[in-house]
Amino acid sequence: MSKPVAAITGASSGIGSVFAHKLAARGYDLILIARRGDRLQQLAAELERAHQIGVAVSVADLSLADETDRIAARLAGEPRLDLLVNNAGFGTKGRFYEAPLEEQLRMHRLHIGATMRLTHAVLGPMVMRAHGAIVNVASVAGYTRSPGSVSYCSTKAWMVAFTEGIYLDLKSAASPVVVQALCPGFTYSEFHDVAGMDRSAIAKSLWLSAEDVVEASLAGLASRKLFVVPGWRYKLIVGLVHRIPVRLRLALEGAAPHNRARLEQLRNPN
User: Fold this and answer.
1) Which residues are identified as catalytic?
2) If you ran DSSP here, which 8-state letter would residue 10 be given?
3) What is the DSSP letter of 208?
4) What is the pLDDT of residues 46-104, one digit of tens each?
5) Whether the Cβ atoms of residue 30 and residue 50 lie closer than 8 Å to each other
6) Helix (H, G, I), strand (E, B) or coil at 174
7) Predicted pLDDT at 260
8) What separation in angstroms does the CA of 266 have from each of 97, 110, 141?
9) Per DSSP, which regions of the chain are E strands?
10) What is the DSSP string of 98-155?
């Protein structure tokens, strides 16, 4: 019997790498997608040895339209594709009007354009097969706002709304295909290092492990859960955010310790 295939973007580190390990242990063959080919090859060799599975490596920068189209065609042509994890993403720091425009555009192309393109490529075949799942790795930031993080919060909010809309499309078609918006909070990974963010400004109690985030996602898939918010603190934040007046929410967001630290970095970048 042929094995199901899972495709993971941003698979070379962090949450994406943990998804690869967890899914390999569950018997999936994998398609690993990221920019860093050396990391992908190392991970692929490790997983093939440990789990006797097939692992294909696709090196691509999904902020570029032609590379996204190439990966979309690859995934659309895979008849065993059972799961797509849209995980690739990055963060920046700096006020929107002061930050380089190209970085903002690249973030929108990656978080929005690539997520939309790859989802469109695989969803039709999944619906035809009446089986499959898509996980869009959004963020608690999709429900809140932060100074110096305009594009990140807004693109993650789009991912949440997009996933909810896809859910309604599937429900209207009585399709058993599952979609999930995975919305973690601060998670230990290379993400904050790449973005140049100071972890010490964030309370230790707010940090999640990538393993716990992925376990919560996979448990949510098993129960067909649309929104997965790992950690009770973040569940509380998301549960409250739409129940308080906008002016109060904005005041609380501006006063949050990690946001105050970000503002201080913006005032004193050196």
Assistant:
1) 152
2) S
3) B
4) 999 999 999 999 999 999 999 999 999 999 999 999 999 999 999 888 889 999 999 99
5) no
6) coil
7) 44
8) 12, 25, 19
9) 5-9, 29-34, 55-59, 81-86, 133-137, 178-182, 227-228
10) TS-HHHHHHHHIIIIIIHHHHHHHHHHHHHHHT--EEEEE--GGGTS--TT-HHHHHH
